[in-house]
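REVIEWER CHECKLIST
Item 1: Sequence provided? yes
Item 2: Single chain? yes
Item 3: Sequence as submitted:
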Amino acid sequence: MQNRLPRILIFDFDGVIADSIPLKAEAFRETFSFVPEHQDEIVRYHLDNGGMSRYVKFKNIYRDILHQPLTRKQEEVLATRYQEQILQAMYTIPLIPGAEALLGRYAAVIPLYVVSATPEEEMHTIAERRGLAGYFIRIYGSPRSKADCIREILSEAGVHPEDALFVGDAPQDWQAAQETGVRFIARVAEDDINRFEDLPGVETIVSDLHELGDYLVSR
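Item 4: Structure as written out by the authors:
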């Protein structure tokens, strides 16, 4: 267990700062309403791959579940349908308990970053509309991989990986931490499945950002 406060804090957004996981799961279900017999499987795939870009999910769903080729035009239709369902809701959806208090407390003392699988331009718009952008040094999104974004943060900040902490809610977030050598904390909602059992390098698990704040204070 690490016993020191990190020099930089990196956050995933969906499921870590914004309580948007149920919204986006339902949006995936509706986006694929034209294949009702596959909707449950598609939603499970979406939830099990929370840190993955929606575009990669679309390709994998077509290949592995629908067993059909995905054309560029079909991909654009899916992306438009999905974005139309979530974007306005993302401007008002509740934040994870403790999020604003933690960001307000630590933005003044530690550089904060967002590394999300949401398209970067969309992520910037959401953060601006939610009044959150000012907390962060920089906000990253897809199509760049989370590992590449973290590497850029470390390089530009001049920080060793062991002095950076990434907070995520998906195994793909853990994988990005493993690839880059940064510390990792998992956020698992009280009513959610723990997808981090037996994964090495998970420093601790928190259910919300009040718990994360308590953990950081104890460092």
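Item 5: Key structural point noted by reviewer: The chain is about 45% helix and 15% strand.
Item 6: Recommendation: ____
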